[in-house]
Structures are given as structure tokens and as C-alpha cells.
Design a protein that fits this description.
Layout (H helix, E strand, L loop, with lengths): L20 E8 L2 E8 L6 E5 L2 E3 L17 H8 L7 E5 L6 H5 L6 E5 L12 E4 L11 E6 L8 H8 E9 L10 E6 L2 E5 L2
Parallel strand pairs: 4-7, 5-6, 5-8, 6-7, 8-9
Antiparallel strand pairs: 1-2, 2-3, 3-4, 9-11, 10-11
Length: about 200
Amino acid sequence: MFVELAEYLLCAGDHEETYLVMTPDAVENRAVVEGTVGCPRCRREFPIHRGLVDFAPEVPFTPPPDATGVTAETIRALIGLTGPGGYAVLIGSAGSLAPALAGLIDGVHLVVVNPPASLDTASGVSRLRGQGRIPLRASTARAVVVGAEHAQKPWLDDACRVLLRGLRLVVLTEDPGPVGAKVLAAGDGMWVGQKA
């Protein structure tokens, strides 16, 4: 996990947003490989193992499949990011596009939530695992891409919550149902919206 991402992490507990405290045990190239993230409000602790911050360690997890039928070049065009800085979030199967996408959007750090098994520690992206929510604070992402298996509530609501106003949400299905974003386009197995 990218060291600077720590200030944007969100506790899995049901309470108001608060900063979390990270205790790194092993760091390589500005990435925490082993350690713990703790919440000063509810006192819960979440492990960091092999670069993955696990906000649901007590819940069994089956990694999603890799995204199929979509390319990193297409996602880059749809999210419309210009200029470096900030974070783009990929959820579930969309995370399999992260290594290729990282080479196309220079200077934007990628965060993958509930990553597919193909995305390992060598990917150069931050990996988080959450249960029913994105473990990031509100209005932190410059773009969010949701894999088809997460294209439902509460994930879509949470995708809008973490997205900055005026920026884009891409869902890897044509009809995700009600989403709290203005529809820009839908077709070819994808839906694109903009947060108002």
C-alpha cells in the first residue's frame, strides 16, 4: 500500500469518518508491505499483509475474475483524467486492468479494492479489501471503475461517495440500475456517469 494513502483510509466500523493510524513493519519503495492500520475511535485494527490492507479479515474472500472484453486504453479514455496527482479507484475485476492502466495515466496512483488474484504485490498499486464498502474517505478519488460483479448497491452508492464532484464513474456493465451520477454514456458492456 502506497504510504501516502494512509490519510485517506476509512475504518470499517459504523461511525463517523476519522483518520486512521498506520504502523508499518516493512516498507519497500514507499509502499507498506507488512503492518497494521488502527482506528483511534473504535480501536479496531486491520492487518497489512503482502501489501494488502484487509478491512474484513474475519470474512472469507473469493477473488473476482479478471475483467474481460475491455482494455486499459478504453478505461483511460472513459475516465477522462488529464494531468498527474490523486487517486483512481478500481473495484473487483476492474483491478486486473491496473498494471496496464498505470502505464497510461502517469502520476495518478491506482487503488484496487477487492483485487483479483492476478494482481499481486508486484503490481505497483495499492490493494485494499472491504466488505460492502470502499475503505476510503469521501471525495478522495479522481475516477472510479467498478467491475461487473460489484455493480450493485451498496458498492455503486459508495463509488459515488468516494468520487470527487464533477468526475467520472465507469461501471463494467451497461445497466447498473440506479446510480447517484448523471449518465454520460452506456453501451458495449459499460456505463459511464459523472458525479454532480
